[in-house]
Amino acid sequence: MKRILSGMQPTYQLHLGNYLGALQNWVNLQGTGNQCLYCVVDMHAITMPYERDGLSKASREIAAAYIAAGVDPAQSSIFVQSAVGDLHAELMWYLATMTQLGKLDRMTQFKDKAGKNAEKAGLGLYAYPVLMAADILIYQATHVPVGEDQKQHLELTRDVASTFNHRYGRDFFTLPDPMIMGEATRVMSLRDGTQKMSKSAESDLSRINLTDTPDMIADKIKRAKTDPLALPDTVDGLEGRPEAANLITIYAALSGLTKAQVVAEFAGKPFSDFKPKLAELTVAKIAPITEKMRHLLAEPQEIDAILVKGAETARSIAAPVVAEVKDIMGFWKV
Ligand code: AMP
Ligand code: TRP
Question: Which residues approach ligand 1 with their CB closer than 6 A?
Answer without folding.
Answer: 8-9, 17-18, 21-22, 146-147, 149-150, 185-187, 196-197, 199
